[in-house]
Write a structure and sequence with these properties.
Helices cover 19% and strands 39% of the residues. It is α+β, with helices and mostly antiparallel strands and 103 residues long.
């Protein structure tokens, strides 16, 4: 099972990935690149990310006491006519702390 999954239009991120990528951030910046079918997600504290990409902000919610996180990406899925089937997602956590997810 992947540490990043899509379930009911929520991006579910296990604590091991979320803590490294987002630290104590409660908001994330997201941008989807259609040509690469890639969603980039960064914590609000990574101001450089917002300057490099045209982003939108989403709420990063606590999913459980283990530190798992969730982000509602329903609107993004609909706007880009993406498959909303529940599934594991391929991802890469960049050295900059940016989470790159293949949708």
């Amino acid at each position: 099972m992947s540490a990043v999954r899509l379930k009911n239009s929520y991006l579910l991120i296990e604590a091991s990935v979320a803590s490294v990528a987002f630290g104590d951030d409660f908001q994330v910046s997201v941008v989807y690149y259609t040509e690469r079918q890639t969603l980039l997600v960064a914590g609000k504290s990574k101001a450089f990310f917002e300057k490099l990409h045209k982003t939108g902000w989403l709420l990063l919610k606590d999913r459980n006491l283990l530190g798992d996180k969730s982000v509602n990406i329903r609107e993004l899925l609909i706007d880009n006519d993406l498959d909303d089937t529940d599934r594991d997602l391929a991802y890469e956590l960049k050295t900059t702390g940016i989470l790159s997810i293949t949708l």
